[in-house]
């Protein structure tokens, strides 16, 4: 009887051991499953964080781009405002120029007759003046008449050349000037050096320095110069050409006598 009981106890113990072993195995399987699930959740968290980080970086880039676009817009707005002011100013200038253009014809109607009068007055002055470069001066007057008939020359250019001619006439009235040319005297053409002291005196000397002449603006004729002035005339010509130092000279001046 006792042996039967012992066998029953052993059998019961074995069954209990198997039951415990089964429970442990089941528990181990549950833990493994939980660990796998936890690992999957962790991986999912990592992927989610990566997505969040990526989205954040993209949002930062978009923010930078937005700020850059805003800055560029502000700069473009300032520039556009500046360009608009320039355009407005140019339009105002164009309007002013148009008004001036519209008045050009009226201006020409007043200026053109004046220019013809100026040319006529210049020609008359040259003919009445002492004969300093007379041929060249009369030729200049003719050139002025030619440009007045030239459609390719603007009114402003015509006026500029006329005023330059007047300036050249003013220059003849100052300083010592000497130049070589031809003198018609007694029916003979003589090569001479002309000399004039402004418009106060006009003289000529032969190239061999032996003869001299003076223009008498009272009679409008050339006269023989006294031999006593030949040396002074020679020096005056050299002074005018800057071939010698300036000095005091004694020369006859008809204008001074007439003024007395």
Automatic annotation (TrEMBL):
InterPro entries listed in its UniProt record: UCP028069 (IPR016866)
Presence of the UniProt keyword Signal in the record: yes
Coiled-coil features, chain-numbered ranges: 80-107
Keyword terms of this UniProt record: Coiled coil, Signal
Signal peptide: 1-26
Protein's UniProt keywords contain Coiled coil: yes
Descriptive protein name: DUF3450 domain-containing protein
């Amino acid at each position: 009887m006792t042996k039967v009981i012992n066998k029953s106890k052993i059998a019961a113990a074995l069954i209990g051991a198997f039951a415990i072993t089964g429970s442990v195995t089941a528990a181990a399987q549950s833990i493994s499953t939980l660990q796998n699930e936890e690992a999957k959740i962790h991986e999912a968290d990592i992927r989610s964080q990566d997505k969040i980080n990526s989205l954040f970086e993209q949002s930062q880039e978009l923010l930078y781009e937005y700020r850059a676009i805003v800055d560029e817009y502000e700069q473009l707005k300032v520039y556009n405002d500046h360009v608009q002011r320039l355009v407005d100013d140019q339009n105002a200038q164009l309007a002013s120029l148009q008004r001036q253009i519209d008045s050009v014809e009226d201006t020409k109607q007043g200026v053109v007759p004046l220019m013809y009068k100026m040319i006529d007055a210049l020609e008359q002055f040259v003919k009445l003046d002492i004969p300093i470069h007379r041929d060249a001066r009369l030729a200049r007057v003719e050139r002025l008449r030619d440009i007045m008939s030239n459609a390719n020359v603007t009114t402003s250019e015509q006026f500029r050349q006329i005023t330059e001619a007047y300036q050249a006439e003013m220059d003849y009235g100052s300083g010592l000037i000497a130049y070589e040319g031809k003198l018609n005297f007694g029916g003979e053409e003589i090569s001479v050096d002309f000399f004039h002291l402004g418009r106060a005196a006009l003289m000529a000397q032969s190239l061999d320095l032996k003869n001299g002449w003076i223009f008498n603006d009272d009679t409008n004729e050339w006269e023989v110069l006294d031999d006593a002035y030949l040396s002074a005339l020679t020096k005056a010509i050299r002074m005018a050409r800057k071939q010698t130092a300036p000095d005091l000279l004694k020369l006859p001046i008809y204008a001074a006598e007439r003024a007395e």
